[in-house]
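hi! just following up on the protien thing from before. the input was this:
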Amino acid sequence: MSRTTASTSGSTAPSAGTSAPSAGTSPPSAGAGVPSAGSASAAGARSFVKPVRAWWPSSTPGRLVALALLVVLALVPVFTLSVLIANRSAATAAELKDRRIPAALALDQAAAALTEADRATATSLVSGAFSLTGPGQDYQDAVKRANQFLTLAADLHRSDPSARVRLTGVNALMVEYTIMVGLAQTGGDGPLSLANVFYASDLRRSIVTSLYEQRRADLADIRAARSTWWVGAYVAVPFGATAFVALVLVLVAHAYLRRRFRRRTSPLLLLAAAALAALIAWTVLHAQSTHDRLAEGAGRRVAEQSALWQARTAVHEVVGTAALDIASGGVPRATDVKAGLTLRDLVDPVPSAAEIDAVRSGADPRFGGLIATALAEDRSLPLREAGVRALTAVTALRTAAERTKAQAPPGGTRDGGPGTALLTGRAPDRMSGAADDAQTALAEALIVGRGAADAALKEAADDGGLTLGGPLTCVAALVLTLAGLLIRRFEYGRLR
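and the predicted 3d structure came back as:
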């Protein structure tokens, strides 16, 4: 037993050949080479911690403040665009209604009045009354109206230098026109009187051509004005985008409060989101309505009214040209002045009775011409009734013109000879009578079309309350959002 114990203890003791650690060598620490349980868990926890974004606050109060600032920054462009859209669309519609459209139509009105004066001169000449009483009171009244329309057009074009230059030239030609008519009256029944009337008529055609050239430029400006960015339907795209960003931020703030404060809903933030959604819908509908109303009032209706005024000019032109043909015996004009409007410009071809009845029932015209342009895509009953009366009168005018031409003496007449009664008679089957009926019907159509155009432009100029409602809605959404976030900030302070 003793031997066994000795051997055992000898095995556990260090051997003699083994050197003991020196006194200067410190023993290894207890944790050297073997990580402790606490250090291992701390390292594992650090490896799963999400990195904190440098630009996003880590504290709850900081995040509430950051959300509030983001909502404020998002609502600034919403507020600005809301005010600009309402103001610019109203200003554009008002400018079209008060200046651009009346300026263009004043040119058509001046052309119609001047052509009426030329018709009065020609019919007075062929009837034999010209050498005695001159062109008559109808001529005086028509020239007066033409000068009034030209004055109005010049006033409405005062901001357009090229238009002012053209209208200045037109006014000079107007003075020359009246002078030539006066000289024609002093010529008596001789050929000089006829030559002066022909020259005055050529001046009138030059004036009408200049007026129509300016009218085309004005209509192009009107199309450009009603197609600007502020009155287009697409103006709602940037506004909707910015307002949608603000709406998303409000909803993000609501989700954060729900998660952080264990609140199912935040009523103030939901009200702010509802206000922004309503503002988006409100502005989009307003932009689309303004675009549609301008397309009608400053587009189709303006083209309709211009066509009707040109139709009135064409009726006067047809009668005046026929009168000069009778007075001269059909001698063609040796001039390069552009020819005036004809019956083919009014309707082409002249519709039958069945086609006129179809127009009355609302069908689109199957013929061309100025009257068809005015009636196309407009099925309002008053306008269709006026258009039908105008078409009936134009049909009678064509028949009377053919009869007048057939009965006119070959050498011409300026003393009320054959064919003159068919021209100057006021019965519905005579040229002047049919022309008067057509003028009355076209005037009624113009009144109807003008009323519809004014109504459409008035609706386009109406901001729908957006000028005041848009900014107020933005402010309300901002106040509600800030109030909702501020309440939670105070709640967080109490919890601390």
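The CA atoms of residues 165 and 314 lie 26 Å apart.
The radius of gyration is 44 Å.
cheers
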